[in-house]
Amino acid sequence: MNELIFRGKDRYRPSWSHVAILAVLLAVEGAAAAVQLGPTGFYWLLGGTAVLVGLALLITLRSWTAVGAAGISICWGIGRARTHPWQEIRWIDVRETRGEYGTTRMARITLANGRRRSLPGLQHSDTYPGPDFDVDFQRVVNWWELTTDQALRFRPPRRLRDRLSPTALGVVLGILLSVVIVAVVAVRS
Prior knowledge:
alpha+beta; three-stranded antiparallel β-sheet; four-stranded antiparallel β-sheet; 26% strand; 5 helices; globular
């Protein structure tokens, strides 16, 4: 079988509508910052925002997954890739997440130590559809089934975070953060 490579730069292409929305948000942020923080604060905020957006874009475009005879190699855009040998991989599945902007399906592996790793570049979402996602996922599963013993393959038990959606987790974290901020303000007053 041929090695499979799924690269972020092939999947994630910002559309003009995304760029326009980002430009509007940056303009609003800049106007509010100029009024509230003055010129120095405005430049710091603008520079920090540009660095964060650039870093996020760089990480996204440099992420990739390679599937080959040695196993599955994952690179999240920073640093070197990590190869997980086939003997360490116990399960391969698809995690489906429903959110405000639609449904996202991402392939992931479960390792012998119980940790799960998402495979960058191998996903499907409403924003960035992957028309060949199911075919590519099946090709990865075929590699796994051909190179591992059936006794080493088993479905891991479900965890709490498998039952929680990112939205629910964000709401809980938002409430906790609000409580902490209120407590800090109350203590300082």
